[in-house]
Amino acid sequence: MNSDFHYYATYCAAILSGYSHEEAMTICYSDQLVDLCSKTLLQELKAPASAATTQLQLELMDARTDIVGLQDITRIWSSFHFLPRDLDAKPHKKCSKTYLNKYRLICGPNGELVKMTVELAKEKGLQAVGLAMHILADTWAHTYFAGTPSMVINNTNYHFYELISGEEGEIRRKITFRHSASLPDDLENSVYTSSLPQNSENSIMNLGHGRAGHLPDYSFIRYLYLPAWGEYEEFTKDNPSDYHHAFCQMIYAMKYLRGVNDEFETDQYDTEAIEPYDEEIDSIIRKRQPDASADWKAFGEKLSGQTIEPFDLMRYQGEYKNASENEKNDTFIGQFIIAALAQKSMVTNQIFRRGSKLAGYSVDYGKKGFRGDKAYRMLIERLEGMDK
To answer: How many other CB atoms are there within 10 angstroms of residue 280's CB atom?
Structure first.
């Protein structure tokens, strides 16, 4: 998803779930920050690099693709952007353990991990709420792709069509992918930019939905293709429906996080909250445009009667830089870092417990104590303090 949904639509969902304008701004800012909190940024802030929630293109170009490098990539992208739907899933046919481990990282909504993600954010602050909403929403947009480099899981081929509704019914229009990042997507002719095809299984070009370009991030699009992991059967992706479900599920989840609902269950959506605005929301989602920020912003300001300030990456950096070492954890960015470390630790642990080392090793702190990155010592100490 793009900033139109992660920032402005998340603000709207937060308001509809009962948060105040100020609270909703913190939530949507934290949601958008997930797409920008890179190691480069954290190093500039002298903050723990292990709290990175994304990787910049330049970082990916220099990323190692040996075992250690791939583990680092997988920890980030599977934890925050391509949350696996079913870590116990099995392909229809027998396969190698290597393929099985990658197959189980395929993203999708309403899995066990999304429930754990939302529950993890409970009573952990608004930054944790925003981070969880980013992950929840991406499970809908990034369905069928995995947060680890894999040609066999994430590749696309010539059989890729956009489904367009017209006066004469629905038609298939063949999608053309090009590989020039400087050119904008041509929505009129279904010409879209994607990553370069690479035959190497572990090429960075085969990470996530790079081979499908920005298509998963457009709320209006419906498309079908033949994924190799699906035994070359046609899979249809209906983004308008999925984005509608994501929006309603965020409201339901945030009502749980506010304490309105006693529990969070998967496959539950608060359609009642959006009933007076359903037509307007559907219109925004289905409007054929590369960026719906202006429409979501106008809707959000109508809901709250307040001005939604544009996202400013620099907004909280001074607070963090100027804080003493003992105060950094209580700053805006400090709270975000704690939430990010907790989420990454949880997902890595769940992947490791299935016998997969694709996201690295995970230590049972209760049995073996702390080992590894000192940032995680900070996390454990912080969480232990919150439990007292």
So the answer is: 14
